Amino acid sequence: MTYQTIDGVRVWGTPESGALAQAKTCAEYGNVVQTLLMADHHKGYSQPIGGVVVYDGQISPSGVGYDIACGNKAVRTNLLAADIKSGMPKIMDSIARKISFGVGRFNNEKVDHGLFDDPDWAAYLTVGKQEHDKLRALAQNQLGTVGSGNHYVDLFEEEETGRLWIANHFGSRGFGHKTASGFINLAAGRDFFGKAPGEKMDQPPVLLELNSELGDLYYRAMKLAGRYAYAGRDYVIEQVLSILGAEADLEVHNHHNYAWKETHDGKEVVVVRKGATPSAPGQVGFIGGSMGDISVIVKGKDSTENKDSYYSTVHGAGRIMSRTQAAGKMNWKTRTRSGGQITPEQMMNAVNDYGVELRGAGTDESPFVYRKLLEVLDAHAETIEVMHVLKPIGVCMAGADEFDPYKD
């Protein structure tokens, strides 16, 4: 076995004290079957990122987190990366112009989608007509926008074949964030759109009984946010394919902030993965590295250790430096930063050395703030196999000084 068990928590990779403490707290509340930490784990809000908590009959809105259904879509195109390398600056300019990046951004092209006729919108009507109407309008306006933070649209060259891949990373945007905060408020007896008191990173998980009215409403709302995230990632990939004049012949699509009803050891449980990728035997997933590192397509193994992981693996390389440590504190009145450990020059030198055409991004997303992806993948060698290795050649993110009020 490549994992260790610490106070009942199964831990892959090197334990990080803050995340481990959060996992132990999660294990002490509710009907917990098992708590796990993937090798990319670090502290999050309530449940650690890279953390998996398995419940019997319960679901945790704080465990799923504020970015419900954050995940990745990756497609292999019919082009070779060599076919477009000479035109990369113009291509990345087009992606940066065409796709809407940033907090609160609306899509310039109204997207009509069958999702807005989904019967699960009734869950919001049960909460209240005002809540339903506001969230539906926000969702319609933001469908197909990417957001900020660590969310991106990337172009990759597959190491084995030279094929060009496209991948993106984002979730359910403001719709998902307001859904999460709304149900956390309702669980505490506050109004859906009420202002929450000072939330703390290490506070215990918010739990709902799945068979209660509120638990059922949250589960339906979460699933709707999941379908919304899928629709948004589909839309963005189609936009980039159009820019490239390319077609996709293989796609990989998965959430990594979500709660799934699954059967393990003959019993249905709820598996809450926050920053963890599902990896059932034969299941294919995308795992992203930093802008100066590889990403990979992986497949879950039919192994005892994968079963022990509740078929879960990493979702990325994992942060080793906080945003403030990397970029410093931002003074929003003067729009200046101070105290950061990473300079823009250091970031650009690293990215240029790796051969990446970069648009947007701040030093808090530079390669220096993440582990090397191979290190965390090695810790899961008994649970997943790497199918394709992808080297980034183009990275597009929100601007360096984009204010991001959303939590992981």
TrEMBL record:
Its EC number is 6.5.1.8. Its cofactor is Mn(2+). Mn(2+) 2 binds at H169, H256. Keywords: GTP-binding, Ligase, Manganese, Metal-binding, Nucleotide-binding, RNA repair. It comes from the Bacteria. Binds 2 manganese ions per subunit. Mn(2+) 1 binds at D67, H151. The lineage of its organism: Bacteria, Bacillati, Bacillota, Bacilli, Bacillales. This is 3'-phosphate/5'-hydroxy nucleic acid ligase. InterPro entries: RtcB, RtcB-like, RtcB-like_sf. GMP binds at H256, N257, G288, G289, S290, M291, S295, H315, G316, A317, G318. GO terms for molecular function: DNA ligase activity; GTP binding; manganese ion binding; RNA ligase (GTP) activity. PANTHER family: RNA-SPLICING LIGASE RTCB (PTHR43749). It catalyses: a 3'-end 3'-phospho-ribonucleotide-RNA + a 5'-end dephospho-ribonucleoside-RNA + GTP = a ribonucleotidyl-ribonucleotide-RNA + GMP + diphosphate. GO terms for biological process: DNA repair; RNA processing; RNA repair. The active site is at H315 (gmp-histidine intermediate). It comes from Paenibacillus catalpae.
